[in-house]
Amino acid sequence: MNLSALLLPKIVIFVLASGDQGEDNLLNDGLSIREEQRQRLLNNSELLENTGNMLNAGYRATIEAEEIGARVLQDLNNQRETIQRARSRVRHSCLFPRVQKFYKF
């Protein structure tokens, strides 16, 4: 559940409860207090939804980066093991050159 779904009902209840009960006082721009509150509520709801969407996108990106990092670490581990095996073979072949004459590796 995203953040906006949790907070939006509480915001609506607060704004409706705090509005004028029957008075339509006009503000400088010609909007009533109720209309101005409603517009602020809509703007804040849109902002909250956009913020929630950005947080969700960031979370998905974080999960994806973590998965990529895990795959890179696994690949590096496999490469390290390959290098260690190759190094071991080279050391073995350098330490026992006489043995190489009798056995094929």
Which characteristics define this entry?
mainly alpha, 105 residues, rod-shaped, 3 helices
Structure description:
The structure is a single chain. The protein is mostly helical. The chain has one domain. The protein is 81% helix and 0% strand. It is built from 3 helices and no strands. It has helices at 3-18, 33-95, 97-102. The longest helix is centred in the middle third of the chain and has 63 residues, at 33-95. The chain is rod-shaped. It starts with a helix and ends with a helix. 0% of the residues are buried.
Task: Give a short account of the largest sheet.
Answer: none
Number of strands: 0
Average pLDDT confidence is 78
Beta fraction: under 5%
As for the number of domains, it is 1
Helix content: over 70%
Structural class: mainly alpha
Shape: rod-shaped
The number of helical runs is 3
- CA(first)-CA(last) distance: 61 Å
Order of helices and strands: HHH
Low-pLDDT sequence parts: 20-24
Radius of gyration: 34 Å
